[in-house]
Amino acid sequence: MDDPWQMHAENSPNCEYVLLGKPDEDVNALPFRTVVNLALRCATFSKYDNILEDIRILEESERENALYRDPYSRSLIEFRNATKFLTYEHRLESFESAKIDQKKVLKATSKKLAASGFYFTSKTFATCPFCLLSIDFQEIDDEWKEHQKNVECDFVKLDKKEESEWTPEEAMMLASRMWVMHKYASGLKLVAEFEKKEKEYYEFGERVNRMMAKPKCSTRRCSI
């Protein structure tokens, strides 16, 4: 029979329990802070797994359309979508369609960009989900240094690219920040759409005013 510990270490090398090294049978031998961190991590992942399972059931349900109208269901799905790029793995996946690693002229690579907190948006642009900074990776030499210029970004301030180094509190903080920025970005889109419509209405009104303006008579005998 394969060694369960070895299988655990090979399949989940970033697991906090694995990173401790093979522990003794006596849990009391572990430092108190370590035990607390492990307990918090378990609670965090348990809650997150429950949320993901709820979302999976909602999306696969035959009553999907009806459930989508339920506020709680919509908020769960929106939260999952908004925090998708919290992990390096999902940010890296976003670059698959860009195929930037095949372009040897670029200094940036998908792995470097994802590790620096960016996900692919379009053409040669990538965006940080934690602060909405957008960069043209075709024009930069060091994506992390470029990101560090935005000192207000929580991902930059945390300065921990390795997710295995995050505490549960830090992970939830980043997820919360992503949720806030998602809402902010949605608000910006609404404002942009409103401004566009407002401009269109203004231009339409100007055209109507010109059409309705009293024409000047071109003949001297005209009584108008």
Automatic annotation (TrEMBL):
InterPro entries: Baculoviral_IAP, BIR_rpt. Coiled coil: none annotated. The keyword Zinc applies. Pfam families: BIR. Keywords: Metal-binding, Zinc. The keyword Repeat does not apply. Transmembrane segments: none annotated. One of its GO terms (molecular function) is metal ion binding. SUPFAM superfamilies: Inhibitor of apoptosis (IAP) repeat. This is Inhibitor of Apoptosis domain protein.
